[in-house]
Write a structure and sequence with these properties.
Largest sheet: 7 strands, mixed, barrel
Structural class: alpha+beta
CATH topology of the domain at 2-34 and 120-126 and 163-292: M1 Pyruvate Kinase, Domain 3
InterPro entries: MoCF_Sase_C (IPR005302), MOCOS_middle (IPR005303), Pyrv_Knase-like_insert_dom_sf (IPR011037)
GO molecular function, one term: pyridoxal phosphate binding
CATH architecture of the domain at 2-34 and 120-126 and 163-292: Beta Barrel
Helix content: 10-25%
Radius of gyration: 19 Å
Number of helices: 7
CATH superfamily of the domain at 2-34 and 120-126 and 163-292: PK beta-barrel domain-like
Order of helices and strands: EEEEEEEEEHEHHEHEEEHEEEHH
Protein name: Sulfurase
């Protein structure tokens, strides 16, 4: 094994798309950081979980737990959360007025919803995204091509096309999102007038790597990251939506942030991953990498799996409605 880097920060997000909180240590398991995203905002009209991709005002709200989350926090057990508004007011998830207060602030009818139990799969479903939806999510003009999602495994593609979020979680795709200090610096050097603040990218972990690579975390995909008391499996590069360009406290709206990522890294920044050994992680933990087997990965990518994935991508694209009003 080789040294991959040192954890410099850990982030938890009590409510999906609201501001996160930095913690010095955390338990991690199959669903990622303990008590991460146990609440989300649901669009009443579409009856589906929504996010700052469609309601950027969510990024201006703070969220904190009223008490430290207990060991049962998770699907079916969302601890009380306190939501703070830009004017300094705060409302509890236990207050019946929370839905009306959020709707009035967002100028859109929404409800605050706890993470449903895993067996209530219907509550994770969402209407099939249209091509117009994808253009909104990724901030694309009509003449720009839709993003390449082929890095997702076939099973994950099928899941995210059927559900608003993976069953059992309010994350977008995978329970862990890792970025490196080096990737932040690389992008910052490409657009020096933009602020590539870590808060724009909503990571689980930030790692300081000794690697000279511009994006060290990409080289970890397919391998295993060993912390002293837990193990993580980086899976694929994280494809970026329009959210990092949105305005939020202390950060101005800046389309150049996502344009830079699109132009130089094929819209990817950071990596998605899973937890393969539950345990505790902490700031300062040194991570060691069991490198991926590149030969095996290449063989898989060039074989039947790639053919199946291309077929799935074509089928999903063909079935996806345009979303344009006639």
């Amino acid at each position: 094994m080789i040294q991959a880097g040192r954890i410099t920060s850990i982030w938890r997000y009590p409510v999906k798309s609201m501001q996160g909180e930095q913690v010095t240590e955390a338990e991690v398991g199959d669903l990622g950081v303990h008590a991460d995203r146990t609440w989300a905002v649901r669009d009443v009209e579409s009856d589906a979980t929504t996010s700052a991709k469609r309601l950027p005002g969510l990024l201006w709200l703070t969220a904190r737990y009223a008490q430290p989350p207990g060991p049962d926090a998770g699907p079916g057990h969302a601890p009380e959360v306190l939501i703070g508004f830009p004017d300094g007011t705060e409302v509890s998830s236990s207050d019946p007025a929370v839905h009306q207060t959020l709707s009035r602030y967002l100028d859109h009818e929404v409800e605050l919803r706890p993470l449903p139990p895993i067996d209530r799969r219907s509550e994770y479903r969402a209407p099939m995204a249209t091509k117009t939806d994808l253009r909104t999510i990724f901030g694309l003009d009509d003449d720009e091509p839709l993003p390449d999602l082929s890095m997702f495994p076939v099973r994950k593609l099928a899941e995210i096309s059927r559900y608003a979020t993976p069953v059992g979680s309010y994350v977008d795709a995978y329970p862990v999102h890792i970025i490196t200090e080096q990737s932040l610096a690389t992008l910052g050097s490409l657009a020096p007038d933009s602020d590539f603040d870590v808060r724009r990218f909503r990571p689980t972990l930030v790692v300081d790597s000794p690697s000279p690579a511009a994006h060290p975390e990409w080289e970890w995909c397919g391998g295993r990251l060993h912390a002293p008391h837990a193990e993580l499996a980086p899976m694929i590069p994280t494809i970026r939506c329009v959210m990092p360009s949105h305005e939020q406290p202390e950060l101005k709206r800046d389309k150049e942030v996502t344009r830079t990522i699109a132009a130089h890294t094929r819209r990817c920044f950071g990596v998605y991953g899973n937890v393969t050994r539950a345990g505790r992680i902490a700031e300062g933990d040194v991570l060691h990498l069991n490198p991926p087997n590149r030969t095996a990965l290449s063989a898989t990518a060039g074989g039947g799996a790639a053919t199946v994935k291309r077929a799935v991508m074509r089928a999903v694209s063909a079935a996806m409605p345009s979303g344009k009003k006639g």
